[in-house]
Amino acid sequence: RIHKTNRLPHESRKLSVSIPRLELLAVTLGIRALEFIRREIEVRKTYLWSDSACALHWLRKPPVGSRYISNRIDEVRRCKGIEFHHVRSTDNPADKASRGLLPEKLKDDLLWWNGPSWLWEQKENWPEDKIMQESVISVCMNMELLDEEEIQSPEVITLIDVTRFSSLLKLTKTILYVLRFIAKISKDKIKNLKDFSRDNFTCKEYEKTTQLLVRMAQSSITQKEIEHWGLRKDQNGTWRCLGRLRRMMPQIEDFPYFIKKGKLAELIVKYYHENSFHASVHYTWPR
What we know:
Organism: Loa loa (Eye worm)
Shape: elongated
Protein name: Integrase_H2C2 domain-containing protein
Helix content: 40-55%
Strand content: 5-15%
InterPro entries: Retrotrans_Pao (IPR008042)
Order of helices and strands: HEHHEHHHHHHHEEH
Radius of gyration: 26 Å
Distance between the termini: 66 Å
Low-confidence stretches: 1-6, 132-157
Structural class: mainly alpha
Mean pLDDT: 75
Number of strands: 4
């Protein structure tokens, strides 16, 4: 009688399993094996190597909203005294088994039996871990290995203390001057600031400044708020509130920005209230 074997754990079969999730599961299994060895043998220093850049990125900065990933990261972090490093696929002996190697070649394969040659040297001579977080996320998203909800919103550095301003126009102009200064000292090396000139203010400059203001206001949005308000990102990476009108307006740019309660929201309401000559509350509602 022939039995069909499924290599995935039972709980994983219920999910749309992606390669990074399986690689994180492999790291978790490696941690369990290390814990068993450390209980039996006294080890002074422990290192764990993985060729999964996405899994290592998750360990450094866990994603929001995925219980499957969070549970495994919690288990890994409970195991203390382990250094995590990235190993290139060409130096990873595990690839020999996963890709398949004939026995006559395997018996003479030094990488399989001894590991990479640099592992026998001093730690100072080990290859450098060169994992850029933005590059890892970009690659994983382009290959559709990560879901959008598994990626945390990028952190936005606050250029200006919003609470010091009493006018939205003054705040916008101040940030615009700051961006012009950055564009000047960077000598047009920053692509996103190439539209900022030394002449009179342009509509394009105001548009980009407004987008930055919105991103600053949205930098602390939580996964719970995304699900509660039905938020979606537009092409500029800013959150829009679709609400009950999602089927009536096909373009996501037609929906209002999601601005959390705070000083910036107060300045926006004040600006439109004064521009409408102190009209009633209904005139300041988002359309």
